Amino acid sequence: MRCTYDEEEGTVRELGKSINDRIHPLKSWKSQHNIAVLALLGIVGLPGVPARAQTSVAKKSPFVGAYHHDEADSAEDLAILPDRKFCFELSDGTEEHLTAGRWKPTEHGIVLEEVKRPSNGIFAGVMPHWQSQEESSGPVSVNFLFDGQSLGSQGTFVFGFSEDEALPKEMRPVFAATANKFSEQYALPPVTGPVKSFFIAYREHPEGPRTRSRMYRVLQFHLPEVKPPAELNDPTARLVSMDIAIGFDSESTQPPLHFNSEIKDGVLFVDGAKFGDRQELPDEMKADSPECTKLIEQAEKKVSTEPELMEDGSLQLKPVRSFDQELHVEGAKPYFTTPSDDKTAK
Description:
By secondary structure, the chain is mainly β. It has helices at residues 51-60, 148-151, 210-213, 290-300; strands at 65-70, 75-80, 85-91, 96-105, 110-114, 122-132, 141-147, 158-162, 172-173, 185-187, 197-203, 215-222, 237-248, 258-264, 267-270, 273-277, 308-309, 315-316, 321-326.
């Protein structure tokens, strides 16, 4: 089994591929974007058993081993490790997806618990653009870009920006609720005035009673302070524009995996479905899997509101605060009403 850690976790990627292929129970983990930062689920020990004894029990567990499962269009590998971790890798022909978690014994077998932090699904990536002072002039423009494939089908996202910390008076739906599908990126006209914060809100209960459906979960983001990258090698480099791409990853909002597993005649069954025969772990995974450990260590880090610098020079923004707010936007005109060829809001 080859487990790889994705250093590009959190980058803004093309959306829209199906994530609902659930031929086998473990496929419910499949994610297109890897933009969510994983968080650690607590492991419940065996009651009344010392830690050393628990470690010994884990090493002797009949579940520890490597398992493989093939589907028509994908392959799945599961490694159950002696240190109470597991790695699961899904290969669908074009991409490989890795997740990690913990396992603990139960009365009839073990339970696999994915390591995953609850997520609201909203992501915002920033790409700054620089020019020499000799080549540029005028104010910095802020370009808000919205992913139509992930946001357009919902019809419940509301957006606004302000020059301070206050929720703007004008909050408008991003896309109109329509049966037509939006695609590609949709842009607001460049903003050249002062902008400190932007807000995106969504309804957690859009089908509930009227008073409840007006209640939105609001996320506030700050525009980041940026510095020219060293590779520009230009002391006169000046920020001329900032692209802020906003989207929604519905898969990251799904609850973490929680599967009951048992072995029958040397075959692993996951939630009652046959997965595969037990094989010996590769030598390099018998003590630990660095990739799984790295994922868990990432999860244990304290959640920060500071932007995260990605390898391509973009920044992944984190919400500086979130709160519930009743918004009356029934009469507000959406920024984008139809999936026309004109992708700029009026």
